Amino acid sequence: MNGWAKRIDPRWVLALTCLLGWAFKGHCGAYWGGSIQYVTGCYSDAVPFWGLRGVSAGQIPYLEARMEYPVLTGLLIWAEGFVTRTVFGASATAAHFLFVVAAVNAALAFVVLGMLRRAGVDRARQFAWAAAPPLVLYLGHNWDMLAVAFAVAALLAARRGGTQLATALAALGSAAKLFPVLLLPLLGLGALFSRGGGGVGRRIVTAGVLVIIAVVSWGLVNAPVAVLAFANWSEFYSFSSARSGTAASVWEILAQSGRWATTIPERNVWSAAIFAGGAGVIVVLGWWRHGARPWVLFAPVLAWFLLTNKVYSPQFDLWLYPVLLLTSYRLWPVAWFALGDIACYFAEFWYFAGLDGHHPAATLHDIALAAGFRGAAMLWIIGSAVLRPAPGWTAAPERS
C-alpha cells in the first residue's frame, strides 16, 4: 500500500462516507414531490414508517403497530423513534427520524470497522469498507445495518474459534433480518465434520449444543412478542411468503421477458428448491478447501441465496458486501459487484420515476442488464470462493 494510504486513518474515510450517505438520502427531506425520491435515489423506508407504522405516535411495534420486520429491527425502529421524539420534541418530523436512522446506521458502520481492525483485517479491506459504495446508498435507506453488524461479529467469532458465540450472534442477527441464519448450518457442519472434533458421539453433542444455543438465542428475543401479539409478530414471515418479487430478481426478469412466468406459490417452491440444491453443491465443493473454516462459505451461500430469492431489494447488497471483504480471495470482483449494485439501484428507481412520468427513466430491459452485470460478478465470486483459498488474514492469529 502506498505511503500516503498508510498515514490515513480508515475511520476518517468512513466518516466522510457516512456524511455522503446522509447527504444522499437527506437532501430531499421527507416531503417528496415530482418523484424526487426516485429521480435522485433519495428514497428511504424511514420516511413512510414515521407515519404509517406509528413511530411518530410512539406506538410499540407488534403490540400497538404493524411491523413487517423481525423483532430486533422492530425494537430498533421504536428506539430510534423515541430518540427522535425526545430530541426534537413536538416539532419532530419524518426528516428528523431519517437523520436519527442514518446516525445509528453510521454508528453501526463504525462498529463493523472497529471489529475489522481488532481482527487484523488488512488495511486494503478496511479502506474498502470505509469507502463502501453500499454505505452511501443504504446508510439512510432502512435498518439492515443491525443484522450486518451481527453477521460480521459472528464471522469474526467463528474465525477466533468461538463457535458457540458465533452461533448465538448469528441467531440474534436472524432476529433482526433473516439472512444470518444461513451461517448456522455451516457452523453445525463444522462441528460435525471438522478435523480434531473428537469421536462421533462428541461431535454430535457439540453440534447439538449449537442447535440449542441457536434456538434459545432466537427464542428469547422472539417468544415474548410471539405470545403477546402473534399476528403482528408473524407478519414478517407471511409478508415475505406473499410477496411476488422485485424488479431486479431473476424470477421477475424471467417473467417480464416472457421466458418463465411463475405464480407466487411456484416462486416460493422453485426458489427454495434451487437455492437448497445450489447451496448444497457450494458446500460440498468448497469443503475440501474450506472445511477447517466452513464459515468462509457463508459468502458464496449468501450470494447464491440473493440470486435465487424471489425478492432482491437493492439494500440486500449491503448484506453481502462486508462478508465479501472478509472472505474474498481478491478485491477486484468485490468492486465489480459494487458497480453492479450502483447500476441496479438507479435502474430500479429510475424505472419507478418513468412510471410516474419523470426523467431520467429506465426500462425493465435496463434493469435486466444491470442485474445481469451484478449477477455475473456474484457467480464469479461464488466460483472463486469455492475454488480459491481464503485470504491470508483468516488464518492469522488475533492481534492483542
Order of helices and strands: HHHHHHHHHHHHHHHHHHHH
Strand content: under 5%
Number of strands: 0
Shape summary? globular
What distance separates the N and C termini? 23 Å
Residues in helices, as a percent range:
55-70%
User: By helix and strand content, what is the structural category?
Assistant: mainly alpha
Mean pLDDT, as a whole number? 93
Rg is 21 Å
Tally of individual helices: 20
Oligomeric assembly: single chain
The main β sheet shows up as: none
Q: Regions with pLDDT < 50 over 5+ consecutive residues? A: none
Account of the protein in words:
With 400 residues, the chain is mainly α. It is built from 20 helices and no strands. The protein has helices at residues 3-7, 10-26, 36-39, 46-52, 71-88, 94-118, 123-130, 133-138, 145-159, 163-174, 183-193, 200-228, 230-233, 235-242, 250-256, 264-290, 298-308, 317-327, 332-355, 364-387. It starts with a helix and ends in a 13-residue tail after the last helix.
